Amino acid sequence: MLPIPSVANLLQRRPRLPARLFAWLFASLLFATTAWAAAPAGDVEFPLPVESYTQDASLGLWDTLVARVQAEPFNLIATVIFFLAILHTFAAAKFQKWAHAVEHAHEEKVAEHRGAHGVTGGPVPVSFKGKVLHFFGEVEAIFGIWVVVLVIALTITKGWGTVTHYMSSVNFTEPMFVVVIMALASTRPVLLAAEACLRAFARIGRESVAAWWLTILIIAPLLGSFITEPAAMTIAALLLARQFYELKPSPRFAYATIGLLFVNVSVGGTLTHFAAPPVLMVATPWKWDLAYMFTHFGWRAAIGIVIATTLYALIFRKEFAALQNARTERRSQNAGQTRVEPSVPAWITLVQIGFMAFTVFVAHYPALFIGGFLFFIAFMQATAHHQGRLELRSPMLVGFFLAGLVTHGGLQAWWIEPVLSRLGEMPLFLGATALTAVNDNAAITYLATLVPGFTEELKYAVVAGAVTGGGLTVIANAPNPAGQSILQRYFPNGVSPLNLLLAALVPTVIMALAFMAI
Fold first, then answer.
1. Apex CA 169: angle with CA 165 and CA 171, to 5°?
2. What pLDDT is recorded for position 410?
3. What pTM value is reported for the model?
4. Are 145 and 401 in contact (CB under 8 A)?
5. CA–CA separation, 490 and 406 (whole Å)
6. Per-residue pLDDT tens for 13-29?
7. What average pLDDT does the chain have?
8. How far is CA 243 from each of CA 202, 209, 220, 222, 237, rounded to the nearest angstrom?
9. Of 477, 307, 453, which is closest to residue 398 (Cα–Cα)?
10. Dihedral, 458, 459, 465, 470 alpha carbons, nearest 10
């Protein structure tokens, strides 16, 4: 008969959480529940539409912002929470270091305890504090964490009804689309097909490390104009991981590459009017078609990408030689051990590319592309012997990141719109570039469509600025979190926001000159 553990033994075995943490969680839950019950029923006019604010041309920018805070005090609260979330992203690496230190100390304590009691083997108990700190250090989780703070603040000040009304008004189509397209683009048949296509260009340089690097960073971003930027980012990041980052480049070269990748993808989707999120926001309201995008943006973007990538290739030309030697040495060590990867039948690849094409075609209709994704999962199971493992962790984290970003971004129109409306052509371009670094560039261009009286020159300036600044931070462009999620394992303690910003500055300046000086 199996022994039945006593209650005392069960209590001793349960994970011990710090008493202060228990008290904090209980107090927070009690406070939130009380506030929820006591708060008013909810204000359906939240957030206030931009056009509902008093439009007084005589007021300066500061006076306009003050008046809007007076009309809706929660504007200031929402923006403070948003900027705290941004500051949190810059501290993510510190949380990761703290988490590693806590987990290391926990493992040593467990080993010491087991040694003292003669216990060997068995799973090591998880450090709850370490896991929580890891969660706070995940860039993809940060905006979601601060959404919790936003929801609590909104519940206390305006009631649960306002929370449900606002959350139901937020458009989560883009985060859902990115999850699906990332999952599709990272499958083995699609990745092998993309690698085969890019290999045709890499062969010009005899498939050297430099040739692969140039091919991925020039061709893949331009393909984003046809297969969407999130798909291009996923494919480019996966191929860079295989052809470049696995060779362990120097930290300086590693950051230069990811910064260049983010900038190139941001502008590479401007050859068409349906692939880049910031362009999608304005294409219909401003009647921009394929011909307009290519003649005004596309060719300039292609020139900027080639110049920026070539410049970085020249700067790091000596490191390419070292990486080439490292690849040759690795191949010689693995001679005879390398397993030939089996090919995928062409019809399976075509079907999966068809699923991607369908997803892009119905990108604005979640019910259709999610339904299509479910059919894709069934097809993948039916052809499992030609498939790899379906990777969902990174797409889900990226979707969570974008969902948090659009939730916060929907409450920032009150200050972004008056800033954009008061700028001339060049200041508007520079302002849009700077604002993109702290907000998704699609949000910037969407708000621009709400500003009355924009001339064609101003429309061009705001979109050019939004795509130019799309590589400065991980939150600047929707596909960036996808690239960071795939490549962050090659950076100790994750990708540093400051180093990413510095790495993206030079290609950002080149793109600015390409759009505004040519």
1. 150
2. 86
3. 0.78
4. no
5. 28
6. 444 445 555 555 555 65
7. 85
8. 11, 7, 14, 19, 10
9. 477
10. 160
